[in-house]
Amino acid sequence: MTAQSAAAPRRRGRWTADERRQALWALLFISPWILGFVVFTAGPMLWSFWLSFTDYDPLLAFRGRETQFVGIDNYTRLAQDPRIPLSLWNTFYFTILYVPLCTAFGLGLALLLNRVGGRSAGFFRTAFYLPNMTPAVAVGTLFLLLLNGQNGLLNQVLRVFGISGPSWLNDPEWIKNGIVIMMLWSIGGTVVILFAALRNVPNELYEAARIDGAGAWKQLMNITVPMISGALFFTVVINTIASLQLFTEVYTMFYGAQQGQSAASDREALFYVIYLFRNAFEFFQMGYASAMAWLLFAVIMIITFIQIRLSKRWVYYEGE
Amino acid sequence: MTRRPLFVALLAMLAVVTAACGPNQPADDDDDGQGAPAGSPGGTQAAAEVSGELFAFGFSYENGDTIAKSRVDVFTEANPDVDVQFSESGFEAQPFLAALQSGDPPDVVNIPRNILGSYINRGVLQPLDDCLAQQGMDTGIFREAALSQTQVDGTTYALPEFFNTRLWIINNAAFEEAGLDAATFDFSDWDAIAEANQQLLQVEGSTINRIGIDPKIPEFFEMWVRANGAQIISEDGRESLLEDPAVAEALEYTVGLVEAHGSAAAFTDFRNTWDFFGANNQVAADQIGAWPMEQWYLNVLAENSPEAEITGVPFVTQEGDITTISDGNSWAIVEGTDNPDAACAFVTTMVATDTWIASAEARQAEREEEGLPFTGTYTANSEADDIIFGEMVDLSDTPAFQDAVDAVLESQDSAFAFPPSPAGEEFTQALQDAVNAALTGEDPAAALQAADEEAQAAIDAAAE
Nearest C-alpha of chain B: how many angstroms from A86? Predict the structure, then answer.
């Protein structure tokens, strides 16, 4: 038997007994994930898709009341509800401001980390990542103190420079900016990903550039950014999705027990997922909330699709 | 590898999956999800005859104070065969929904009275009339305002627990400095309140050093509406009255009190800097002139800044009649409970006169041990309150607090409450949005008009 005949592809559709056995074992090993995906992701998604065409009320369902099919009523209502464009605008505003800032600050901190050597390197990596380990509820509560307009730490620092800081938590013009500042505190995840990417950029490229007379800025734009563009793209995509789903920190700051504490928050801090949550669990309109969830899913899909299409223009993959 | 180990492995996985699904199965295969009908026969409710397990949602025993624990102890001592478990958390809609959907719903729930209407309207709570008859409990012992929140069409669905009301708390030092007399100030005169607000407030540039009069809106806006001779919602909770010009007038007035300090944003920022539960609270630090507040705050002041001089007077209408919002929690039985007898015994015991007295005695003993005065417990059970405040509370050493407590007691019979509306949450949200919109510059009448339409639509939809 020649090497060529040994490597010849088997006929399509025919599996040997050994291959079938191996496939079964493979299936067995990945079955926990498949099971988890079906039970905790795909199943609820399909269920919520069905609910979005019904008037499902969990309390009435508990009492045995049959859920009614309402066609596209919930989707029609989305178009008529004035809080939908408001909450979408708040969410987009936050995303448009947060994602570029998070990427820029994340890259800046990753570059700094990349220059730190010795024993202190581990300390700084830990320090930058530590805020990510803080529970979101604690972050929300902490920033209620830090962002207070009268005696919050941020405005006290601004006062040192002669700047009279705004009311970050109560002025309608500034609430969303205050939330962006709060969320920037937890960019450790982005920093770690970009830092890992920076470590993989070959040193020879910088040496060659330096010999050619390239300065720091040119090295950054022509070597660093292209070489870590894959990681940058990844962080932009996941941060965009996370921003569009912002919930816990803002809910802790302005809703729940804090409801009514800020006059402007009812409008300015009404993010899309918060409004969705309130419809589902405070007003028990689970059908409508499901329609909201699918609208958000569609929005995220479209934005991610656009990002992927645009990525072809600026993302460089070494293997391609 | 042979087929046998693969088959065994698949079987093992199937077993794990089956076992994992186990706890989600209904406890009783015959249970149709509806549970026992209201007032199902359960024999007498004599303490010795109830037994089994009981799960109470929205209540914490472990983290509860003496008043909470001692009442549960009264029940468990009288009913040793009942194993009571608690959710060990306050009421939250989301986990409650999850508990209902679990197939083994809670037996009883401790739930805020303001949101009862949504749950009653959806049939989640069991009518208690048969339970009350079996236990021989007369609802006449409960304060009318509290009871009205728990009844729909004459049927009682929950038993009121605490009774929170509001009164004016005056910082005597600030009033004295402004040349005002705290004891005789007329809170029925809105012009006088606005004038006092200007005299009391202290603002330097954009920095507020003292709030003059805090109207406490949107939280207590409904009281200002009552003071202006109007209501925000009909007595049956099915008609929004937010379009009433008297409501807009109250909103315009109260927003004016806030705006006199510069802006609502600066006002709120300053208020959020207070050491509300500490020794350097806003009275001790002279950061407020006067504000309407829940009566429990008197205890906070008595404990943390007993030297701070305050005057407590009832909230009054422009005609001078006492009025106050009341609220608090209540105990209800969840439809579908598989232990209705124990549930009935539990909810009635938790609000019974003897139970309240036992808990008050426990708290009194605790306070004596700490060397602090017993300031009382404000319950929705007027029979218990008569004994607690008539025979147990003695604040003669702190006459200012005694006067404030008297003002609370004086207000209780004039209290009103938010009715059990089928869309209570949505109504409250719409009203709050309108008040907040006015605070951030929108025209009060226009904001209320929009809220009225939204609230009525929600009520109509929920009542369908």
Answer: 13
